[in-house]
Design brief:
With 158 residues, the chain is mostly helical. The protein has one domain: Four Helix Bundle (Hemerythrin (Met), subunit A). The protein has 7 helices and no strands. It has helices at residues 2-19, 22-30, 53-67, 71-75, 80-100, 105-126, 131-151. Helix 2 (22-30) runs parallel beside helix 5 (80-100), helix 3 packs antiparallel against helix 5 and helix 5 (80-100) packs antiparallel against helix 6 (105-126).
């Protein structure tokens, strides 16, 4: 009976990892067990959280993807493929954050809130059926960028 339970558990794990996107899987692996405890983004005793070079590099790339997007994307009139392209770039940058960023546990827990919004926005852009849905994803990512700027110490962030 024990071996059947082990096989079921192993099969369930294999199925769940096959279903998760690479970024979602990486975020799950990066979780360190504090995914649900940080429900609200907050400062570190009134100060912004520390950042590291991999995080700063990826966030600049995400900002450039969003703010540098053509005007039709910001107006919600671009084709779904244009939003998907930006969503894919953002997803790749988030993957680098998850893989390379090494923050202290409390800062990392706060970063997970921003990362969740980045992923949600990128997913919305990638799955957009029209310009309105794509624009909503772009706005979600822009909101995550603003939250990052307000809560994380990133010298030179504009």
């Amino acid at each position: 009976m024990k071996s059947i339970a082990t096989l079921i558990a192993a099969g369930t794990f294999a199925l769940s990892t096959a279903i998760l996107s690479p970024v979602a899987l990486a975020a799950t692996e990066h979780d360190h067990g504090h995914g649900a405890e940080a429900a609200k983004l907050q400062l570190d005793h009134g100060k912004k959280w520390a950042t590291d070079e991999p995080l700063r590099r990826a966030m600049v790339s995400i900002r450039e993807s969003v703010h540098g997007a053509p005007a039709p994307m910001h107006k919600g009139t671009a084709k779904p493929e244009a939003y998907a392209e930006v969503g894919n770039r953002i997803e790749a940058d988030v993957g680098r954050i998850v893989k390379e960023c090494k923050l202290p546990p409390d800062a990392d827990a706060q970063l997970h809130i921003v990362v969740a919004d980045l992923i949600a926005g990128a997913d919305a852009m990638k799955g957009a059926k029209d310009g309105k849905a794509g624009r909503a994803g772009l706005i979600k990512v822009d909101g995550a960028l603003k939250a990052y700027a307000a809560h994380f110490d990133h010298p030179g962030w504009k």
